[in-house]
């Protein structure tokens, strides 16, 4: 969908929304369908080719609306009000477009926490089943979780929140968590009477998009009965391309997996997708059923109560965004988006390699290039400062084994080869200034 | 803003969004303003009278956009991509309009958890400062938190997640938590060697909109050095009306306070507003600063890093919704909305009182009426079943001291006196059917 079609469709959507709310009094307040009605009405897979916008708009009426409880109907007197107003909707349209976010790579952090809490509950119950005299606190005191020293800070934060020890496993020369280092920490901790229970492996780390070795780490988790959570927040989107699937090898060992379609799959923030191998591990961890939340289907097995899967009870109707994007891009359109970003990263990498004053600091697998001027950290800090003060492009740094490194991430849906070319020439010029300044 | 103005403004916003994204390449990628630039440009209070939409749209350019980092610019190479696409934006427009949510009264539950975690950290550090030999687990094992037996289930859930004991305090005849009952539990637990550290008081409970007695509970929390969190998820919006302010008396004792503008203040889901008396209590609890999240202002005191205030790192630009709503309704417009809902609840209450076969089960303070047929729980369960099977209106029940009670909550922005009248006549008819069926 190009901008001119968006202008047209957006205005049609405004009218659709206005018509809907004008006519809501006439809507049956409560759906006349049974849970599960939707499944036969939608395909099991996203379309390969993009679909026409009309078809989707028509399906809203045919497929989606029959399943909706009309919370804004004047005949809705349940629960409490769910606020809605035209100004707020206007603001949300702008919010989606600006898409500037309070600090985040989105709620992969929430997924990690939920997985940790589920694992904490699971191991506690297992140990208490064996020795009922053990208190939860006595067990928690001994619990220990592991993550690569390259993992996102939200992983360590999950440990702080969950009240359990977390240990960083030193990554190897390619910034990956390997069996040997994990095994070593494990043996030490078991010898010290601790209880290893949780491992977070990252596919596509934030610093340099490195990949922990699932085929090595997975079997250890299985053998030691540790929960394996995979954080693929950024890289996960790339796995829709067959050529990147091999990076997923070992996923079969995972108890839970998360990636953020709102990063790289063209779905506006926020949208984080989590899978769990055994849902009862998750729902069992903190399930409560007050009468005002009970409903006739909760034991029917026909529906999934996602409120038991997450920290907040609330969620927006976010699947709608995925549904629109899958259909209007098709798998092929989404694959093309991923591949274009990877190619632009490779272009930037080759530009850097052509300049002997610069070095590439980590393997370029997807859309991130880690590079620096050969020389001191101070030199590279000065370069980054000049880049961000000039305000023509925006970069952030990372630390790779005590080296201060610049991250060049392909981000925008609109980024083209020319922008990457411009960025490189700009960086090289500022690099020359920095080197000159150093000599003086 | 009426529906016809929304049609016009919505289409203008579509064009604004399209123009913005078409022209984004020309935007300075990075704002040329300093933190704090915004404060002098906006009033310290919401306007009393509604403002014109033009003024707000103009202020977007004048006030908001200069402070925006353009994440979708093709010159943005920082962090990772933040996905954005036209289809996704279309879907979000519909999502906002439908406003049907995965199960929730929104993330008041998150606020409660964050407060509990902060309190847990605070008490742990205090005790470890006094006796450094104490382990976190040894302390956590003894921690106990309190909430009214009328509190929302998310409160107890926060305890499960935070790994601490929670105790329900029996509420009084008006379903309020009082000093005597809290004091009693407190003495028992202290005698048993437990460490009371956290109390959740609710203003406007989910079941019957009762109010815990802050003026009694507050001083106890102060005396015992317990964190007091106030959950005003629903009722909080009403405090913009002076006539309801007295319900807040005692708020001065609170360490943290939360309400959900997305419930009753015309701001689309999700939008939950939390205050904390001492921000370092919150940020100190789980603050981590990896290099890729560092920025030049983080120690300047000029900005507030909300990523330290919440579980997910991510947040949408939700203040925009509040800003639009405050300006386009004005305080008076918002007050009128609250007052209209309260009046409609009073109308329904008086209709129920006129029928001697029914009874009112709790004081009607705001927009919720708890009522039932005089008689058995089975009778009222049958009534509710008929109501929800007829699907003309939608209600949910609650339990009030072992009585099965029907909740009639004024919800829709569009609900008028006629809808309430219709609902009552419908309920009364079905009530007659149920009574007749019982006699047969």
From TrEMBL, chains A, B:
Pfam family, one: Pyridoxal_deC
EC number(s) per entry: 4.1.1.28
Signal peptide: none
Enzyme class: lyase
Molecular function terms, GO-annotated: aromatic-L-amino-acid decarboxylase activity; pyridoxal phosphate binding
Pathway(s) this gene product operates in, as recorded in its UniProt entry: Catecholamine biosynthesis; dopamine biosynthesis; dopamine from L-tyrosine: step 2/2
GO biological process: amino acid metabolic process; carboxylic acid metabolic process; catecholamine biosynthetic process; serotonin biosynthetic process
Protein name per UniProt: Aromatic-L-amino-acid decarboxylase
Lineage: Eukaryota, Metazoa, Chordata, Craniata, Vertebrata
